[in-house]
Amino acid sequence: MAKKSMVERDKKRTRLAAQYAEKRAALKAIATDDSKSMEERFKARLKLAKLPRNSSASRIRNRCEVTGRPRAYYRKLKMSRIALRDLASRGEIPGMVKSSW
Predict the structure, then answer these.
(1) CA end-to-end span of the chain, whole Å?
(2) For the chain, how many structural domains are there in total?
(3) Do both 50 and 75 map to the same domain?
(4) Are 92 and 31 in contact (CB under 8 A)?
(5) Structural domain span for residue 74
(6) Domain harbouring 54, CATH code
(7) pLDDT at 11
(8) Which residue among 35, 52, 85, 99 is the one 20 to 30 A from 10 at the CA level?
(9) Residues 75, 85 contacting (CB under 8 angstroms)
(10) Nearest CA-CA partner of 7 in 59, 43, 61, 46
(11) What is the mean pLDDT of residues 53-64?
(12) pLDDT given at position 96
């Protein structure tokens, strides 16, 4: 199990990213638009920099839904390889069997 504080910190980042998503997208659009004046684009960059760092989507870490493990994460299943193997060994995932040869 991952530390609860790390899992909660990541949940907070996810909430903040969702909250500021529209504002960030609008400011980024202004900042990258070449038809706008240089001053306008610079002001948009400053406003973007004043937003909370944790509201950026790139700071969110993919974590296992079962254990909170940050590494060896399968996006499609939203869990780590270890949690997947445990569930498969117990027969809780339909159609998945531990291989042996």
Answers:
(1) 31
(2) 2
(3) no
(4) no
(5) 63-94
(6) 1.10.287.1480
(7) 95
(8) 85
(9) no
(10) 61
(11) 95
(12) 87
